[in-house]
Every structure is written in structure tokens, then in C-alpha cells.
Amino acid sequence: MPKPTRVLTPDQFEKEMNSFKFTRQLKRFQVHHTASPTRADWKRVVKRHSGDAKKAALEVTTGIWIFHTRPKSQGGRGWSDGGMQTVTMPDGLIGLCRSWNRIPAGITGWNTGSFMTECVGDFRRGKEYPMPDAQYQSLVRQIAAFQERAKLDHDAIMFHKEGQATACPGDLEKGPLIQAVAEWKERDLESIDASDAEIDVPSIPGIFSDILGDKPQKTHTIKRGDTLWAIARKHDVSLDRLIALNSVADPGNVAIGTVLKIPT
User: Under the phi-then-psi rule, with left for phi > 0, alpha for psi from -120 to 50, and beta for the rest, what region is 4?
Assistant: First the structure.
């Protein structure tokens, strides 16, 4: 099969999944992590491409594909194609690797009917756990789009370690992932995003002050297990606005006890 050439955003993935003509039965979404390359490896690739995230995503996806298709005699897997349908980057971009109509090379005995992603990183505690929010949101949206396309329940998800003796995908928790997928699928598609519904109020003294007053700043204190994506969902604000308001440098590594301002 040809080398990977395409990288999608979650929005583009959803559209493509909705219109793709599958010729095989679909039963479950497999979730894996790469362990190697790590998130640190990905950051180095992004830096080498001067911050061009799409070029970096394509290089990482192609590197995995080359390892999978390289002959065993040369240290590869010796497969005819990359093992997984998608590779999910720490920033949420999605590299396309294997034909969606080919059975993945994932969990022995469970590949028929599966669609598979590998999330770049090593999500064991003490390594690169937890998964960055942008990557987690991308994973949630891929699973939700797949399940909606295949008319599957929220829990049609399988972790690598459920079918084989492996730590993959690290300490990612399945229960919260299923809940996040359910919430995404049940979202109100007709709702207007707060960023699109803002109204400019004329700054004329005395006219609106009695009605509006000064509203106190809403905050959220980070506790163990919190993710920015879950906090944004809880307060019904966009993840991007939450990150921007708080000038978060590393969304996947916000210290416990940090007080975040909630966008209004």
C-alpha cells in the first residue's frame, strides 16, 4: 500500500467518516498508544518543521508506516500496510495510515470488525500520563463519529490490554472515556457557541449598570484526575477559550491546585 499522504482535523475526520463507504462489518473501536514514538519525540519533529503541525503529523505517521512495512530481516513488522487506520497526535491532528476498509493489525482475535487508532505517547503513570486534552478530545470525536456511522453503542470501545497481555494504552481509563463519548454524541447540535453569541454593549455610563452590575470571575481549582477538556465541558465553554484565558503552556500538564479562570 502507498505511504500515508493525508492529515485531518477532527472536523474533517467526522465529515469523512460520515460519508465513507465501508464494505466490511463494523463492531468496535480499538484504542492503542504508541509508547514509541513518545510525545517528546513528536515535539522534536514539530520543532524540526518550524511548528508546522501538519508536516510533523505526516512525518510521524509515515515513520510508523515504514516500521510496520519494513521487512522483518531489517527490524520491521513485515506487513503490507500500516497497522492502524489513524494515528492521533498530541495536538489532536489525525494521520491517516491504513485503508479504512482493511481489517487493522491490532488485537489478535479481535481485529475483524474493528477500526483502530494509535495515540502518540506513553500513557503509563510516570511516563506521559495523562493524555493531553487536545489529543483526548480528538480521540473522543473519532470514536463518536465511528460509532454514529456504524450505529454502535457508546461502549463499543476496546483497549489493547483487554485482548492481550500488554500495558497498552497505559493508564487511560475506559469508564470516563465512554462517558465523554456519550456526552459528545448527545450534545445539542443546534446550540450556539458562546463565542458566536456575544453582544457588544455600548459603554454609556448608567444605562446598563443597574441591570448587569459587575459579575464575579468564575474559577475552577484543579484536582487529581481533572482534564482541561472535562472542565471546559462541565462549564459549557470551548477548550481553546479556556486555554487562552489562562495562558496554559502545556494543556496536558496543569498542576494540581492551579486556579483556572472560566470564560464568560
Answer: beta
Res 207 pLDDT > 70: no
Q: Does 195 map to a domain? A: no
CB 82 within 8 Å of CB 99: no
Q: Are 148 and 140 in contact (CB under 8 A)?
A: no
pTM comes to 0.73
Q: Which is it for the CA torsion 155, 159, 161, 164, positive or negative?
A: positive
pLDDT 10s digits, 71-121: 999 999 999 999 999 999 999 999 999 999 999 999 999 999 999 999 999
User: Which of 185, 203, 231 marks a domain boundary?
Assistant: 185
Which CATH number is 106's domain given? 3.40.80.10
Domain with 249, as residue range(s), is 217-264
**Cα–Cα distance measured from residue 102 to residue 193, given in angstroms and rounded to the nearest whole number:** 37
